[in-house]
Design brief:
mainly alpha
């Protein structure tokens, strides 16, 4: 009986250690996803004006040729 309780206690300790590692890994994953999201959003904000100008130039050039 003591052996079973000892094994259960060891398993519980290992489970707690595993959960400790798991939440740190999940936090790291979510932080990286958040950083990527912020970088993509900032790049879209910064480059959207250039994209609009390029499209406007193409449209003007298309109608001037005819």
């Amino acid at each position: 009986m003591n052996t079973m309780l000892s094994a259960f206690a060891d398993n519980l300790k290992n489970t707690v250690k595993a959960l400790d590692i798991t939440w740190k890994g999940m936090l790291g994953i979510f932080l990286v996803i958040g950083i990527i999201y912020i970088v993509v959003t900032v790049l879209n904000i910064v480059t959207v004006e250039d994209k609009r100008k390029a499209v406007a130039q193409k449209i003007k050039g298309f109608f001037k040729k005819k």
